[in-house]
Amino acid sequence: MIFQFGIVCLALSLGTDAFFVEEDHPRISKFDLSENVFRYNEDANLNARELISKYGYRGETHKVTTQDGYILELHRITGPNSNPNPENKTAILLMHGLLSSSVDWIISGPKKALAYMLADKGYDVWMGNARGNHYSRSHKRLSVLDKQFWQFSWHEIGVYDLPAMIDYILDNTESQKIFYAAHSQGTTAFFVMCSTMPKYNDKIIAMSALAPVAYVGHMTSPFFQILTRFAPMIEAGMNLLGMYEFQPTEKFMKNLKALICDPEAWSQPICENVMFLVAGFGSDQMNRTLLPAILGHVPAGSSTKQFIHYSQMVKSRKFRQFDHGLIENYRRYGRFTPPDYELFKVTAPVVLHYCVNDWLSSVKDIEILAQQLPNVHSRIKVPHPPFAHLDYLWGKHANELLYEKVLDIMSLFSQK
C-alpha cells in the first residue's frame, strides 16, 4: 500500500515516464547555442587528458583497481610543458563532488582552475574519479548494466575508492604523505575514510575541504528537500523499475525545473542541467562564457544511492551510514539504526572553506562538523556573500577568493 501510494505521488509530481532512462544521452546539454550569451566552446567535447594537453600541460592517465573490483581512472598533471619536470614534488589528490569528475578542476583553464594553479606552483597534481562517473565505469567482473555495479553510495567511495587512489599515488611517487583537497561529496568521502580507516590520517599532510558536506540537516536545496520527503518511495520505485544509475530523463527535468526555475530567466540553459538544480545557480560568479564548456561535462554520473544516502541524513540530521531498513540494518550493523561516523577519529589537519550562500553546505551544519572534528586547523569564509556551492569550482574569481588561500595554507604545511 505504501509503495503504491509512492508510485502515485511520483507519477503526479514528475510524470509517469520520468522513471525511464534514455539509452543514449549526449554530453552536451540541450540549449540554444545561437543565443548571444551561449557560444559554442570546443572544451565541451574534450576529455580531461585532451583539455590538459590543449592548455600546455603534461598529463597522464592511470588506472586503479579497488578492493571490491571497480576500475577507476586517475588523471595526473606533472607540470607545464614550458618547465622541466622537477624532482621530489609533493603530491596532492583533488576529489570531485556529486555528479562531477576530474574535469571540475581544469575546465576554467590556466591561471583560473585549481589544478593548473597547483601545477604552476610545482605540485604533483592527481585528480580522482569516483566509481560510476564518465571515467570510472569499469569493473573486473560487473557491467554497468548489472544491478550490483550500482549498489554503492559515497560510503563505498570513502571506504574503497579513496584508499585505492591514495595508496596508488604513494606507491608511484616519492611522496611519504600527500595533500588532499575536495569539493562537496569529495569531503564527505574523506570523512568516511578517515573515520572508518584511521590509518589513512597518517598519509595526509592536510585536507582542504571546499564546501564541506557531512551534517546536512540545514541543507536548503529544493531538490533534496523534495527527495527527502519521498526518499523511501523513490528508492522502492527505482528498485522495481531497475533504475540504479542516476540518469534523469527529459520529463523528469522538465517537471523539476518547473518547480525551481523562472521560465523567463537567462538561466534556463542551467536549469536544463540537474547539477545546477541540485547545487544552486544565480551567483554573480557564474561565468556565462564558460557555461557551454561546463554543460558538456556535467552531470558526469552517479548511483541513485548516493542521493538517497544524503536525503536520509537531511531527515535524520546525523552523519551516519546508509539506512537499509530495520532488518537489513540489524544484519549488517548488529543494530536497527545505522551507526554514526566517528569523526573524532579524523585526526588529519582539516581546513574548512565555506560561504554563506550555499544550498548544500550551510554555515550551521559546518559549525556542527567543526565541533566534531578534533583537528580543525582553520575555518575560512569566502569573503564574498553571493559566492555559492558551484562557485568553488567555476566561479569567475574563485582563484582570488579561494584558491590563493588554499595554496598559502598548503605552503605553510609544507614548511613544517
TrEMBL record:
Q: Which residues form the signal peptide?
A: 1-18
Offer one Pfam family short name for this entry. Answer: Abhydro_lipase
The family line of this record is: Belongs to the AB hydrolase superfamily. Lipase family.
- Its protein name is Lipase
Record: active site: S184, D358, H389
Q: Which organism is it from?
A: Cotesia glomerata (Lepidopteran parasitic wasp)
Please list the GO biological process terms of this entry: lipid catabolic process
Q: Which PANTHER family match?
A: LYSOSOMAL ACID LIPASE-RELATED (PTHR11005)
Task: Say yes or no: keyword Iron present.
Answer: no
Gene Ontology molecular functions? hydrolase activity, acting on ester bonds
Q: Which UniProt keywords apply?
A: Glycoprotein, Hydrolase, Lipid degradation, Lipid metabolism, Signal
Domain of life where this protein originates: Eukaryota
Partial AB-hydrolase lipase domain location: 49-108
